[in-house]
């Protein structure tokens, strides 16, 4: 009986040991996949990181383009505003110069207060020179001839200025049609006034009267 009990006890112990070994093997098998899943997850995260960066850059690129477009539009608007301001300033200056040219030409043809003063001064000088006596020809030259020549000289200066200003306005780019018309009128009248003044100064049109012998 004791032998049978001993055998039974040994069988029971052996069975328990076998069960314990199977349990240990099962637990080792369960923990091994868990340990192996960590590197796999790390690899998956490392592979997904570049894709996430690309997605972030792709998402940010439209915003950058959208922000750069308004900046370019602002620069274009500033350039257009500067160009418009420059054109406006050029147009105003050209118009004013054209009007000045026409006014100078009209003054050169009709006479100026400056020319009148110079003429009267020359007349007074001539009277002083001939007060102690002189021939009729000398009196005509000193009293009237010098005065007429002085007036022609002053008018010729105004005519020359009108011609120069008118030609300069015509050389300016992007001028308005009315500015061109006024500048042409000033240049033409200035040239005509210059011609008449030169002819009067050199006695080409109206010579001094001569006295009888």
Report on the architecture of this protein:
- Helix content is 88%, strand content 0%.
- It is an all-alpha fold and 213 residues long.
- Helix 1 packs antiparallel against helix 3 (136-171), helix 1 (2-110) packs parallel to helix 4 (177-201) and helix 3 packs antiparallel against helix 4 (177-201).
- The radius of gyration is 56 Å and the shape is rod-shaped.
- The model is unreliable at 1-7, 31-40 and 60-66 (pLDDT under 50).
Briefly, what is this?
Helix content is 88%, strand content 0%. It has 213 residues and is an all-alpha fold.
List the helices and strands and how they pair.
Layout: H1 2-110, H2 113-129, H3 136-171, H4 177-201
Helix pairs in contact: 1-3, 1-4, 2-3, 3-4
Label the structural class: mainly alpha
Mean pLDDT: 76
Strand segment tally: 0
Query: What are the secondary-structure elements, in order, as H or E?
Result: HHHH
Q: State the distance separating the first and last CA atoms.
A: 195 Å
Taken as a percent bin, the fraction of beta residues is under 5%
Based on CA atoms alone, the radius of gyration comes out at: 56 Å
Main features:
single chain, 213 residues, mainly alpha, 4 helices, 88% helix, 0% strand, rod-shaped, disordered N terminus
